[in-house]
Target: BH3-interacting domain death agonist
Amino acid sequence: VLAAFDREVNNEVIRIIAAQLAEIGDQFDKEIQARVVNDLVQHFLNENLSGEEITRRMSEAVEGLARAIPSDMEQEKAMLVLTMVLTKKIVNKMPSLLRRVFSTSLNYISQQFHNYIVRLVSAVGQ
Model:
């Protein structure tokens, strides 16, 4: 019973966080220029680029966008949302890249934002 309760709480916490991030993402979506998306699409299409190189390019794009978007929110939250919005925009532009883009984005988020996500979940869960 306790495990089921924890799962329900975690699902509710995740829904709350997802709704908050989606709202921020909608705001950021309008700020991302097509050129940034097109450049990333070209990098993902380049079979000669390693996963590490593509992740580095994604990181550079996210960091550049985070600096360009005036925001009073935490830098980590802004960068996490920008990563997710870029992922969506790239896949919408070039659906055939879904697997490579999703994998790269997931790895990037895991590497860069793991601790932030843990803090976010525990803060909302309390």
